[in-house]
């Protein structure tokens, strides 16, 4: 599949078939994540693949709002992938051990985001659906999964075969988001 076809064809999917997703397929989407670029190639990302129904229900219970559209998806999809980042790696100087930029410690969010985007695009190219979920209590998710000290849960996505075919959400025109030579110009 062409890159642009995957970028434009992917949708957030919130309803999934019960059809299982085999380990080989899960490995393919994780392989795509593995090849994302990262700060000084530190690869601070970690992924927890959840298939256990009880744990998926617990994860669904961590969304801040009961009306979060992805809440049921986390419970019902055959797989949930939880993306975590190691703290103190992305954005940190190897020499001083201090943050290198004015973004402080938060570059791990960027790197985990890049890996997650690779993952969702590869999932789409394999006929699978995903929806990135960010509105949840990350500390509770960390406790549920036993995430180690020094790592932070960033985002989750259900993974499964789509049981819906939503149209595209609108995007801003390039003219609204692209400037030339100077910001706002
Ligand atoms: C960082 C991030 C957090 C998100 N969190 C949620 C969420 O908590 N619940 C949800 O239903 N969708 C969530 N989404 C999905 C967005 O609503 C969706 O990507 C956006 O509306 C565009 O739709 P599309 O993905 O189908 O193009 C999130 C997306 C991103 C990138």
Helix and strand topology:
Layout: H1 3-9, H2 23-34, E1 45-50, H3 53-60, H4 71-76, E2 79-86, H5 107-125, E3 129-130, H6 138-145, E4 151-160, H7 174-177
Antiparallel strand pairs: 1-2, 2-4, 3-4
Helix pairs in contact: 2-5
The structure holds flavin mononucleotide.
Flavin mononucleotide binds next to loops.
Quick overview:
This protein is α+β, with helices and mostly antiparallel strands. It is built from seven helices and four strands.
Relevant terms:
binds flavin mononucleotide; NADH Oxidase; alpha+beta; four-stranded antiparallel beta sheet; globular; 185 residues; 7 helices
Mind explaining what this structure looks like?
With 185 residues, the chain is α+β, with helices and mostly antiparallel strands. It has a single domain, classed as 3-Layer(aba) Sandwich (NADH Oxidase), CATH 3.40.109.10. 35% of the residues lie in helices and 14% in strands. The chain has a four-stranded antiparallel sheet. Helix 2 packs across helix 5. The longest helix has 19 residues. The radius of gyration is 17 Å and the shape is globular. The N and C termini lie far apart (36 Å). The model has no long low-confidence stretch (mean pLDDT 97). Bound molecules: flavin mononucleotide (FMN). The site of flavin mononucleotide (FMN) has 11 residues, from loops.
Going by helix content, strand content and strand pairing, the class is alpha+beta
Small-molecule components bound: flavin mononucleotide
Q: Please report the number of helical segments.
A: 7
By DSSP, the count of extended strands is 4
Give the C-alpha Rg: 17 Å
Strand content: 5-15%
Major pleated sheet = 4 strands, antiparallel
CATH class: Alpha Beta
Mean pLDDT: 97
Order of helices and strands: HHEHHEHEHEH
Adjacency order of strands in the biggest sheet: 1-2-4-3
